[in-house]
Amino acid sequence: MKTNRQFYIVSEAILPEAVVKTAKAKELLAKGKVETINQAVDLVNLSRSAFYKYRDGIFPFYQERKEKIVTINMILDHRSGVLSGVINTIADVQGNILTINQGLPLQGMANVTVSLEAAQMQVNIPELLEKFLTTPGVLKAELVGQSI
């Protein structure tokens, strides 16, 4: 029995349709969009036998991408909806929130630190800070740090 397998990176365009559909079915299962193999193969229009034939030989290739995580500190007015506005701003630019830490409000202001994944954002960090500053109730926004 050969245990040392060789792997290749191959364009989806040259793969047989059944192999591509197997990969899509596996993705549906992995993401929890379906509960059973039967549901997955039905959705991608693939036979179960083809799925079982190829399932152990096809894997998604995730391009190496640099996760860019930024941490931003803000001072917000302590009133309803301000933090929600910050969250909506992040969502609008396709940022992915990792953590939010809010301190207890003092003198009508709250300190908030947000860490987010910025690799897929549609704006750069200075533009994001400007967007925060135009969000009602955001008094201050500054970059604390970032990892590349």
Structure description:
This protein is of the alpha+beta class and 148 residues long. It has two domains: 14-54, no CATH class; 69-147, 2-Layer Sandwich (Alpha-Beta Plaits). The chain has five helices and four strands. It has helices at 17-30, 37-44, 48-54, 82-92, 125-133, and strands spanning 69-77, 96-102, 109-117, 138-147. A four-stranded antiparallel sheet has the order 2-3-1-4, with helices on one face. A hairpin with a 6-residue loop joins strand 2 (96-102) and strand 3. Helix 1 crosses helix 2 (37-44) and helix 1 packs across helix 3 (48-54). The longest helix is centred in the first third of the chain and has 14 residues, at 17-30. It is elongated and about 65 Å long. The two termini are 43 Å apart. The model has no long low-confidence stretch (mean pLDDT 88).
Q: State the total count of DSSP E strands.
A: 4
* Helical coverage, percent range: 25-40%
| Rg computed from alpha carbons, rounded to a whole number of angstroms | 23 Å
**Distinct helical segment count:** 5
Question: Could you give me the name of the CATH homologous superfamily of the largest domain?
Answer: ACT domain
What's the arrangement of strands in the largest beta sheet?
2-3-1-4
Give helix and strand order, one letter per element, not per position. Answer: HHHEHEEHE
The CATH C-level name of the largest domain is: Alpha Beta
**SSE-based structural type:** alpha+beta
Give a short account of the largest sheet. 4 strands, antiparallel
- CA distance, first residue to last residue: 43 Å
Indicate the mean pLDDT.
88
Q: Architecture of the largest domain, CATH level 2?
A: 2-Layer Sandwich
CATH fold annotation of the largest domain = Alpha-Beta Plaits
User: Into how many domains do the coordinates divide?
Assistant: 2
Hey, roughly how much beta strand do the residues contain? 15-25%
Which spans have pLDDT < 50 for at least 5 consecutive residues? none
- Sum up the overall morphology in one term: elongated
